[in-house]
Amino acid sequence: MRASLVQISVEPDESVESRRRRVASLVRGQSDADLVVLPELWPVGAFAYQEFEAAAETPDGPTCQALSAAARDAGVWLHAGSVVEKAADGTLYNTSLVISPAGELAATYRKIHRFGFDKGEAVMMGAGRDLVTVPVPGHLTLGLATCYDLRFPELFRALADDGAQALVIPAGWPARRRDHWTLLARARAVENQAYVLACGTAGTHAGVEQAGHSIVVDPWGETLAEAGPGEEVLTVDLDPAKVESTRDVFPALKDRRLGLAPPSRLRD
Predict the structure, then answer these.
(1) Catalytic residue among 40, 51, 57, 121
(2) Torsion of CA 238, 77, 228, 215, to 10 degrees
């Protein structure tokens, strides 16, 4: 399975419409891939909170329409990153879109863990509630997560339990915490014995410099490829058999102990 991570530069002087056209063209250029992955909230910028309401759209809105056509033209599965979704009740969500090679919207995922510590995304957006896995026929089953989700290992263990073999994580990760980004990506791969495809943005938006450094990690925790800080396409060949062989050779997942009692405490 060939995967291409498109690390998009999000800059404030480029309009959303212009960026959509440019990104659609980049996707069309990945016709030799099976799966293409885009970053989190690339149409507007993950930290451009003041733009969220105006940029909100439905899952089948203009971003999906533009990228569905691009996926169909390229003949690829496309994780189109995420958009600001406006639900029927007016709630905003950070929603990822997965599009099939036929250009159909195959799955959506609403980000469960919202970043901001009682401001920004944490108060402006609703929290998702559903685990989402997406089988890519003939290849791998994808488990979906977004950016800040990366810090919560229980989500990824649940995805692995649900059959995920590759964990796909679009992000708008700040440059000042880049070391956490690569460390956590490798940790999620090691503990779940799964591929991690973590695609971030480049550039600076809303005054926040982005980390870039999109990364692909194999089920043993080895970094297969890592981008630099600027706009870049990272293409890697993944072996679906590597997931099962890693789990067979080192069957740590079978040694999990669940349902442990609360810790005992000394009494006076």
Answers:
(1) 40
(2) -50
d(CA 227, CA 128): 29
Examine the residue annotation and report whether 226 is marked as an active-site residue of this protein: no
Where do the domains of the chain lie, and which CATH numbers do they carry?
Answer: 2-251 (3.60.110.10)
Catalytic annotation on 254?
no
Catalytic annotation on 111? yes
Tens digits of per-residue pLDDT, 77-121?
999 999 999 999 999 999 999 999 999 999 999 999 999 998 999
Residue 1: count of CB within 10 angstroms of its CB:
18
User: How many whole angstroms separate alpha carbon 8 and alpha carbon 219?
Assistant: 26
The pTM score is 0.96
The mean per-residue pLDDT over the stretch 208-213 comes to: 98
CA atoms within 13 A on the CB side of 51: 16
Average pLDDT value for residue range 15-30: 98
> Which pair of tokens denotes residue 51?
């733009």
Distances in Å between the Cα of 22 and the Cα atoms of 43, 51, 54, 148, 268 are: 11, 20, 21, 26, 68
Q: How many CB atoms lie within 10 A of CB 138?
A: 8
Measured in degrees and rounded to the nearest 5, phi and psi for residue 7 equal -85, 100
> In whole angstroms, what is the distance from residue 138 CA to residue 115 CA?
35
Written as six digits, the tokens of 148 are: 């800040």
- Whether the predicted pLDDT of 215 surpasses 90: yes
Among residues 64, 111, 199, 231, the one annotated as catalytic is 111
